[in-house]
Amino acid sequence: MHTDLVAALDIGGTKIAGALVDGDGRILARAQRATPAQQDGETVMRAVAEVLGDLAGSPLWGHARSVGIGSAGPVDASAGTVSPVNVPGWRDFPLVDRVRTITGGLPVELIGDGVAITAAEHWQGAARGHDNALCMVVSTGVGGGLVLGGRLHPGPTGNAGHIGHISVDLDGDPCPCGSRGCVERIASGPNIARRALEQGWLPGPDGDTSAAAVAVAARAGDPVAVASFERAAQALAAGIAATATLVEIDIAVIGGGVANAGDVLFTPLRKTLTDYATLSFVQRLTVVPAQTGTDAGLVGAAAAALTRLPDVQAASH
């Protein structure tokens, strides 16, 4: 039967999802709450506690050996705290301690959501079998994570690989992070849409001004929509090439809502990448869409907790 399971939490500005996951990445039980993102920190924590309470009601809960948490960031894994940009009530919130208390002292592993999706793609998805990979999420924001030497590389605080805030335009627009010309400021969904609207793109009769609507227009050949995706692709290409040049990755995996645009994004991205990834050791770099889908955050949080389990077992021998 199910021997060791892990409890996984995927915490974002919209929803808090939880699951019990087995050693093969299968989700055996689920729970979910809407994130009360504009409420105070204790109200948000209550939603997390309710998700854990639902999971604890499963007959499988007794098999859970640890908890993996992937959270919108920044996170600080070394301190066990989270400060998600889109959840203002949580600033340096001691999430790890609180979850440990609720679960009766289970070990808790915390990583950023970009690192969680990277863990999922390396374990179950497009980066499987690759020892050196960059995985990115391009949606409302742009996040990411790294696999180096066959292992997830979260860094000391759990934020390594955060490609969204590499600057690719020295004199570019100010980014809310405080820097200028960040990948996120050019390539995120809202920024793709903003740029298209500023350049004169007109939405259809439904008034939809999302990046998905811009993608539809780009597929239909609207030159402004095409140009907005080309600009996003160029920013992504520059960030990916910089990362590959620094740490020698051979694959970049892209997920998130904007990746659903398909060829409208990937064709100019692959073309532009050859302009930036020029040195011999980065020329074989491939760019592929993510495979793990909407459960990536949960599967990746579980992966992070599972990779810590052997240390625990080794210590007990």
UniProtKB/TrEMBL annotation:
**Gene3D superfamilies reported in the protein's UniProt record:** 3.30.420.40
Q: Name one Pfam family in it.
A: ROK
Report the InterPro entries cross-referenced here: ATPase_NBD, ROK, ROK_cs
EC number in record? 2.7.1.60
Is Kinase among the key words of this record? yes
EC category: transferase
Top-level lineage group: Bacteria
Cite the entry's keywords alphabetically.
Kinase, Transferase
The UniProt GO MF terms for this protein read: N-acylmannosamine kinase activity
Recorded family membership: Belongs to the ROK (NagC/XylR) family.
Name this polypeptide is given: N-acetylmannosamine kinase
Q: Which gene encodes it?
A: nanK
